[in-house]
Amino acid sequence: MADAQNCAWVQDTLCNTLPAFVRALCLKLPADNPGFSSREEPTGDDGFPLDPAKREYLEKLIQALYDARGIVASYNIAILVLISAFAFRHWQQSRSDSSRYDNRRWGQRQTLQTVALDRETNGAASSSSASTILGTATPPSAAAAKDDNVDLEQLPLLSDSHWDRSRRKARKPAPFSRAISSWLARQPPPLPVVNRALPSNGTSLFVTAWLVLNVFFHFYRLPLRWDYFFIFADRAGFLFVVNLPLLYFLSAKNQPFRLLTGFSYEALNIFHRRVGELMCFEAAVHFASMVVWQFVLAADWLTASTTTWEYFTHPLVLLGIGAFTSYELLYFTSLGGFRQRWYELFLASHVFLQITALVFLYFHFYTSRPYVLASLGIFLIDRFLWRYGLKRATLTADLTILEDGETFLLSADWDIPRHSEKKSPWWWPAAPRRFSITHGWQPTDHVFLTVPVLHGLQAHPFTIASAAPGFVTETAEGPPVHAWFTLLIRAHGGMTADLLAYAQAHSRVPVILDGPYGSSHALEMLRASDCAILVAGGSGIAVTFPLIWALLHDRQTGEAAEPEAVVLEGGKGGLQRQARQEVHLLWVTHSRSHRSWVPEQQLSELVARGLHLVIPEPTIEAGRPDVAGYVSRWIEGSAPEGRHVGVVVSGPDGLNRVTRNACADAIGQGLDVRVAVEKFGW
Predict the structure, then answer these.
(1) Can you say whether the dihedral through the CA atoms of 30, 32, 35, 37 is positive or negative?
(2) Tens digit of pLDDT for each residue in 301-322?
(3) What is the spatial distance between Cα 434 and Cα 424, in angstroms, rounded to a whole number?
(4) For strand 565-568 and strand 131-134, is the pairing parallel, antiparallel, or unpaired?
(5) I need a labelling partner for 37 at 20 to 30 A (CA). Which of 21, 206, 210, 593 fits?
(6) What is the pLDDT of residues 195-211, one digit of tens each?
(7) Are strands 446-451 and 456-463 parallel, antiparallel or unpaired?
(8) pTM, entire model
(9) Considering just the CA atoms, what is the radius of gyration of the chain in Å?
(10) Does the record's keyword annotation contain Glycoprotein (predicted)?
């Protein structure tokens, strides 16, 4: 009778005092238990169990559960602090990049104005012998040829100008600092046996620090005793729940983290996968630990079910199993091998399993409901309000099969509508349809393509391979800006193979475009660099080509970028050499037919504007080129002069790793080099 009364008190205390997630301890005792009712008041003057030791243990157990709630709930505060630190760092870097970009453009304008004035003063004959254009650039545009309103006395000497001061050779960092920076930028080889590519050491270190943070919250003030093992199991489940909003923020295409930190979608997607993996691990720990507690560690007077069947068929446990199964299936269907083989199934299952898992979790875990509702809100707003409401556009596109027969272009063109800069009401994020692809895009942006006549429910991501027109406001002057939109698509199977077959019989197809999405981090970094190096592997040219076009064309003024260098050997004030931004492109192709992916005319135009272009022999004929050698020579040719070097690479994992490590070697030598990898992993 005493044990029955104790168990009744445990049920009532835990069920009424704590939320529903601990009711797995409180499963109803058999109705035929003699002399026992689950609501029977225990004997004793104070209404508590007669055994003081059990009463003290239960009080400590309940207090430990409540303590765990407060400890783990503060996890998101730590995440907000971490995000704030990255946002502040990004803000500082953006200011620095903007300052460098503005200073170089200011210096270029002053130099070109001085060239024009020198020619005006000395005449065409003398100026032709006094100035020289270096590199493969064309002469300055006519817009910068003459300015009668410029006062020569107000033009500063380049040696004392703000532009020159911003370019003074920086002091090399200490050897230890260089070694650390080099190690952080380096990318290790793939894992043996499984051949899984690893990110840079800096990314791995950040992920490790985040894992340590989660371990800290799991074990902080955790009673390390077997009779308190229930606290360990419960905290694993709660740690899973508090990571839910972070997981859904990272999976959203319109996430604020991209704007706050400047990281690309792919960089954030790496972290998104690690968050999902940890959550699935915590869910497995929670499930297994609860089973171990129920059938191995819990005292007889604490267990509320007498049979395994009764325990696993309880509604609370069934809901937990449903949530656990849904999220584990989400993990396995998100693995790279599964996505590559059955991408369409991955898309369909991802949406269905997310909704199902959130529903199960909402009813299983009482204190999870605020986190579940927040995650569901993030998912619905991103998926339906933004992607289906504001980011969606329907177009009729042209289909052009290229020389290799396996690659084709999907293209369209239109005049970009002007939009108002007037602020929207506080209750509405922006004017409807202002953010769709029809209003322009930026370099490295991507879209999700849906072809209703083939696969109306599938949306596949593709990087925009054409030059970015930018965005146009109502106050902009001049003729309408025309957008030339192109996707470079290689047929692998599924929707791409079906679309290639469709292109063989049709020249046009109606499509739905969801986007654009992306980050301006790579463009900002390259614009702030004195030497811009871009490395493309195969279809990675779809990422690098728009970047180069943006670097060599000024979309704000409509003028071409100035030539690489201007040398003044005399003239007013004795001006000397003023360096220009160097732009290098290394494009590694597999076969000669791949060169048709970018029209020869466009490449020639970029070369005429100052691009240093290198296209080695195709790898199918000559093997892999010395990518590290090209990149190292270009860096060493610019960085020792105190110039800032920005490197962007987009290609296969091996090419990305070789390029990144070449930059890491340069950083180890004390050179000012920054590198960004632009590769989308789905």
Answers:
(1) positive
(2) 777 556 788 888 888 899 999 9
(3) 11
(4) antiparallel
(5) 21
(6) 788 889 999 999 999 99
(7) antiparallel
(8) 0.77
(9) 31
(10) yes
